[in-house]
Amino acid sequence: MKFEFEKKDYKKYLIPPYELWKNTGNVYSVLLRKISNEAVNIEKYLNHAEKIMAENSVNAFCFKLLSHNFDEIPALKKQLLKSSFKTVYLTRNVPRQVISGMVAKLRGIYNMHEREGYSDNASYVIDVDEFKSLVKWETKAVANDIAMLESSGFEFIQVRYEDFVHNPDAFFANIFSFINIPQEILPDSSFSIMIKDLSKVVKNYDEVYSCVDKLGLELL
């Protein structure tokens, strides 16, 4: 994984991204991190993050972690387990997730916040063979992730994107309970669903729907 950050970006973060933290500081500290093994650096980084959170009276903090990060940084899993981190594993209806990604690729827009006021009334043809292949791959990837979390001994909870969309307060209440912090109502966000009606965005919707049905899945 490659990260490109400017040194000035450091002040933008309460807790800087790991790679930025590792390469920022005085000459001695940066050199020490470069010659230290990854496990030592990860432990120091997590301690640094926990110290900042304690200074700011924060009860809990989280960060985004992708499955392939464990392959890229072998020491990561051990250090997270050592520090008793819990895992909130976010899943999404796989067929819908795949369509979302394929449409985003065709649009050239992956997140609504990338363009303020963005709207798109176009419809797109989904390559059904590619769609089927991606759905099978993603379904297997989710199963592998769950198996890894279970076998590694992580304490985890599986939550669904669809539950967040349907009832955000209940979604977060479930997470708060899992990580043992008081429940609170979160402020409104600018979250917006990119594809509100699949039948209008996917030109060959019936063909895609039939493919999902044959796979024994649902398109939520």
Description:
The chain is mainly alpha-helical. 53% of the residues lie in helices and 5% in strands. The chain has two domains: 1-82, no CATH class; 86-220, no CATH class. Helix 3 runs parallel beside helix 5 and helix 6 (94-107) packs across helix 7 (128-152). The model is unreliable at 1-5 (pLDDT under 50).
SSE blueprint and pairings:
Blueprint (H helix, E strand, L loop, with lengths): L17 H5 L4 H9 L2 H18 L11 H6 L2 H8 L4 E5 L2 H14 L20 H25 L3 E5 H6 L1 H11 L19 H4 L3 H10 L6
Parallel strand pairs: 1-2
**How many distinct folded domains?**
2
- Inertia-based shape: globular
Strand order of the largest sheet: 1-2
Q: Alpha-carbon distance between the termini?
A: 32 Å
Elements, N to C (H/E): HHHHHEHHEHHHH
Model regions low in confidence, pLDDT < 50 over at least 5 residues: 1-5
What is the number of E strands? 2
Instruction: Specify the biggest β-sheet.
Output: 2 strands, parallel
| Structural class by SSE content | mainly alpha
Strand content: under 5%
For the CA atoms, what is the radius of gyration?
A: 21 Å
Summed over residues and divided by their number, the pLDDT gives a mean of 85
Task: State the helicity in percent bands.
Answer: 40-55%
Q: What assembly state would you assign to the polypeptide chains in this entry?
A: single chain
Number of helices: 11
Which tags fit this structure?
two-stranded parallel sheet, mainly alpha, disordered N terminus, globular, 220 residues
